[in-house]
Design a protein that fits this description.
CATH class: Alpha Beta
Number of domains: 1
Number of helices: 6
Mean pLDDT: 96
Low-confidence stretches: none
Radius of gyration: 14 Å
Largest sheet: 5 strands, parallel
CATH architecture: 3-Layer(aba) Sandwich
Bound molecules: 1,3,4-trihydroxy-5-OXO-cyclohexanecarboxylic acid
Number of strands: 5
Structural class: alpha/beta
CATH topology: Rossmann fold
Helix content: 25-40%
Length: 151
């Protein structure tokens, strides 16, 4: 059986985790979160990608579409979640399943965060569990991959 591979993608400002508004996002750095995933899911082949740039995230999705290599994506798009139609269109344009995750509960925050323009084109959404959101996103993705009909 081939290894399941998951690319964990993070958008703008998530490189600042640990230092950035810890009362909202917690004290774990992105590196801590990534390490925690590798430890919690030893059988999964993880990759990690973060960029402050919207275009980089789009190009990474297109690379996956064109060259394969990843069973699924767990994505925290940061603020792009709320306004990037370009990111939404890119997710829509690729076949790889994408799970949207957020550290904070975006529905319990400022009005402008309560709308995600990417949720409709994602497999599912996890929001509000801190670093655990990434773990729950991986679990959701694994359960989908294990049960989805063979195409
Ligand atoms: C976030 C929520 C977004 O509103 C915010 O812009 C982020 C982080 C979260 O993980 O809670 O950068 O995606």
């Amino acid at each position: 059986m081939s290894t399941t591979t998951i690319l964990v993608m993070n958008g703008p400002n998530l490189s600042r985790l640990g230092k950035r508004e810890p009362e909202i996002y917690g004290r774990s750095t992105l590196e801590d979160i990534n390490k925690g995933l590798v430890e919690a899911f030893p059988d999964i082949g993880f990759g990690f990608f973060q960029s402050e740039d919207e275009g980089d995230l789009l190009l990474k999705l297109f690379e996956i579409e064109d060259h394969g290599g990843w069973s699924g994506v767990v994505l925290n798009a940061g603020a792009l979640t709320h306004y990037s139609i370009a990111l939404r269109d890119a997710i829509s344009a690729v076949k790889v399943p994408v799970v949207e995750v957020h550290l904070s509960n975006i529905y319990a925050r400022e009005e402008f965060r309560r709308k995600s323009v990417i949720s409709e084109v994602c497999l599912g959404v996890i929001s509000g569990f801190g670093a655990e959101s990434y773990h729950l996103g991986v679990r959701g993705l694994l359960s989908y991959l294990a049960t989805r009909p063979v195409s």
